Amino acid sequence: MVVTMCCVMFVLYVFPFILILINSFKSRLEVMANPLSLPLNVDFSNFIEAFTTMNYGKAVVNSIIITLVSVSVIVIFSSMLAYFLVRWQWKINKVIFMALVASMIIPFQSVMIPFVTIFGHLNLLNSRGMLIYFYLGFGISMATFMYHGFIKSIPIELEEAAIIDGASRLQVFFKVVMPMLKPTTATIAILDVLWVWNDFLLPSLVLVNDDVRTLPLSTFYFFGKYTANYNVAMAALVLVLMPVLIFYFIMQKKIIAGVVDGAIK
């Protein structure tokens, strides 16, 4: 029974991806006539047109820059904040931590309109740097929460020994504490990479010019007001999915190991 349910869930999960792949090789008429049928002729022209139209190379560079920098600053700032909240027993630290936890239940859609209005009036939109700053703001609460629980399990005697040997607080954090946070860091980094790379809503609000668009935003070229080029759009979606799927298959063992180690801690 369990195996049957797993097989059914697997088919339901994979079916949309297979449908996208099949329709990416069809002509527009074939897609409109029967999107569930196999292509009559395997044609790669859709991929060539999608690659050119969406300016794939530029979009990939934008996505890589935004993803790597965003994930890096989230990991660094959230780990340092969690370390500060755990090791310095100030009363205000509990307030800060509870505020971070409470912020995780606030959906982005509820602050979306004032977000765009305020930052739009300040002329702070349409910048990769501002988008990275926004990702830091929206991603730091969950990352800090995960680091907070892990750091509490690290014996403070290790840090005291390093301080006695002449290490500064920064050296203690980066040379003693941070290496012990590898399982949690791997989990946070991988989950945030998948989030930032695939995100459409936030970049669509911040990035306007074509030269700063990410890969998910570039697929919007194929959907007009009155028509949609579905066959080329499917090819574009395949091109967008390929990098993140390759990344996931390479890192899936680390994802599982990181989640398990974090749960044990």
From TrEMBL:
It holds the Pfam family BPD_transp_1. The keyword Transport applies. It is found in: Cell membrane. GO terms for biological process: transmembrane transport. The keyword Lyase does not apply. Keywords: Cell membrane, Membrane, Transmembrane, Transmembrane helix, Transport. Residues 60-251 form the ABC transmembrane type-1 domain. The chain crosses the membrane at residues 7-25, 64-86, 95-120, 132-151, 172-197, 230-250. GO terms for cellular component: plasma membrane. It is a multi-pass membrane protein. CDD domains: TM_PBP2. It comes from the Bacteria. Belongs to the binding-protein-dependent transport system permease family. This is Carbohydrate ABC transporter permease.
